[in-house]
Write a structure and sequence with these properties.
The chain is built from twelve helices and 20 strands. By secondary structure, the chain is an alpha+beta fold. InterPro entries: CopC/D, CopC_dom, Cu-R_CopD_dom, Cu-Rt/internalin_Ig-like, Ig_E-set.
Length: 531
């Protein structure tokens, strides 16, 4: 049993918190930094998951800004572009994914030619707003666990203490926290700082799944704050309904909203969230019981019953890990992985405390050992502190995007392309802000040196419908041809064509797919042949 408890607690550390999924723009047409001959009538955006457009606008060469009308649905969004002249167009968008998290971005393309040098157009996050969102989220989860989870614990194991103290204050606190969280969500959706922006943020947020989750959490708080009924069965039923309603709230946010199969992910999140609330909510009444020797039998009952929900958490954790977790090989390269590592360390401490309580202190406390009761109270106090810290750390996943692991952990790629006329060693190194630098070394087909007149790079993605983007590579003087700030998010579906002008009459095309490339530090390499 000890091993099972420890295993389940560890799995609870690796199961993602229900709020860290973020939409990611996979491709656009026109592509970012593409030069087109004629102005397009629309801009097409393809995301990795379904999104809802909050706002979209375009800034033109004359600094005029126009709002764009969106259409489409799911993961494919179309922005209608009015007639524009030659020059650079900066199309900005802000979308909200089904998990409730807003993401903003920019697609820059040029009609005819580049008309202006652009500064970094990436959004600067509001530290004050992010901090406020984090604090409200942590406080809301702790309040929910204390009231709803604690009510269920008392209804099951300590009926004489089944009522919530100061229920009106509890309901008001819940309304204030959840209402504040909803308003902050709206500020984040519209891309505002931490400021009062009238009713607009609230009107935006109430149309999202976050509002549904917040409403369910508030209903659960009100149910749990009701005075105990005369009949214990009604009190227990109310407590069970409250925690079920709160658990249902978790299914409207986070990965369960976008992971497939959705029904399985939502079921796992339902049990995971409910057991989490019950566990945290059980700690304060357990601490109170440890001070009253006459009620030590409640400790025995809890100790005997707790393996059942822990087994449910084990099954939910295993399933969610299978559905959600990417490869663990490069976890430290992302914020998600670093937060996960910290949480695992904290849960390891919690495992030690839980095992110490369960197998060394509870039995002695039940037998009336005053010293054991004192140590048990100290240990439970430490568990409460750790529980709050773990909730705080897990809440950082709210800000782990939009660079999800499968898109953020991009490694430098290398591919060797060999033809009868020439060969090329193509290397791509991802940089910040979804760009990459390209380095190409040109050699003769017999591996001898070659001094081409010019080298041009063409990139296109037939799978995503992205037409060829052309780059004139610059000779660095050391035998390499380079291009900087090449838009790049993922190698999937992209093809490259290195056009080598050997002399005035001879051109070699070296074509390959980035899907065939390997990491620069990989142990193997694919060789591609073109014309």
């Amino acid at each position: 049993m000890q091993a099972a408890v420890l295993l389940v607690l560890l799995l609870s550390a690796v199961v993602p918190a229900p709020a860290h999924a973020h939409a990611v723009l996979i491709s656009s047409s026109p592509a970012n930094n593409q030069v087109v001959n004629d102005a397009p009538a629309e801009i097409q955006l393809h995301f990795n998951e379904p999104v809802k457009v909050v706002r979209a606008s375009a800034r033109l060469t004359n600094d005029k800004s126009i709002d764009l009308v969106s259409s489409g649905g799911g993961a494919d969004i179309t922005l209608r572009l009015p007639s524009v002249g030659r020059g650079t167009v900066i199309a900005s968008y802000r979308v909200v994914s089904e998990d409730g998290h807003p993401v903003g971005g920019t697609v820059v393309f040029h009609v005819g030619a580049v008309s202006q040098a652009l500064a970094d157009s990436s959004e600067t996050p509001s530290v004050a707003l992010d901090t406020a969102i984090w604090l409200i989220h942590v406080a809301s989860i702790i309040l929910l666990a204390h009231v709803v989870g604690g009510r269920l614990f008392c209804a099951l194991f300590n009926p004489s203490d089944a009522g919530v103290q100061r229920p009106l204050f509890t309901a008001f606190a819940g309304f204030a926290l959840l209402g504040s969280g909803l308003y902050l969500q709206g500020l984040d959706e519209i891309g505002s700082d931490l400021t009062f922006a009238g009713a607009t943020p609230l009107s935006m947020a109430i149309r999202s799944n976050v509002a549904v989750a917040g409403g369910l959490f508030l209903v659960a708080l009100i149910l749990a704050a009701l005075p105990p009924f005369r009949t214990r069965s009604f009190t227990l039923a109310t407590a069970a309904i409250a925690i079920a309603v709160a658990s249902a709230g978790f299914t409207f946010t986070g990965h369960s909203a976008v992971v497939t199969p959705a029904w399985l992910a939502k079921t796992c999140i339902f049990f995971h969230g409910g057991i989490l609330l019950f566990w945290i909510g059980s700690l304060p009444p357990l601490w109170r019981l440890s001070r009253r020797p006459s009620r030590q039998m409640s400790l025995r009952s809890f100790s005997a019953a707790i393996p059942i929900p822990f087994v449910a958490m084990l099954l939910a954790g295993l399933t969610l890990a299978f559905l959600e977790l990417p490869s663990l090989g490069s976890m430290l390269d992302s914020m998600y992985g670093r937060v996960l590592l910290v949480k695992i360390g904290l849960v390891a401490l919690l495992c030690a405390l839980a095992a110490y309580n369960r197998f060394w202190l509870t039995g002695a406390a039940i037998q009336g050992d005053i010293s054991a009761c004192g140590r048990l109270r100290i240990s439970i106090t430490a568990e409460i502190v750790l529980a709050v810290v773990i909730v705080g750390v897990a809440s950082l996943w709210r800000f782990a995007g939009p660079d999800q692991l499968q898109y953020a952990l991009l490694q430098p790629l290398s591919i060797h392309i060999h033809t009868e006329k020439a060969m090329a060693q193509f290397e791509l190194e991802p940089k910040s802000h979804d760009t990459a630098s390209v380095h190409v070394t040109i050699l003769a087909s017999d591996f001898g040196p070659m001094h081409p007149r010019a080298v041009t790079l063409r990139l296109w993605n037939p799978t995503a419908g992205v037409e060829a983007i052309r780059y004139e590579l610059l000779n660095s003087g050391d035998g390499e041809w380079r291009a900087e700030n090449v838009p790049y998010r993922s190698p999937n579906g992209w093809r490259v064509d290195v056009q080598v002008l050997i002399d005035d009459f001879t051109t070699a095309h070296l074509e390959a797919g980035l899907d065939d490339a390997v990491d620069i530090d990989g142990s193997a390499s694919d060789t591609n042949r073109s014309q």
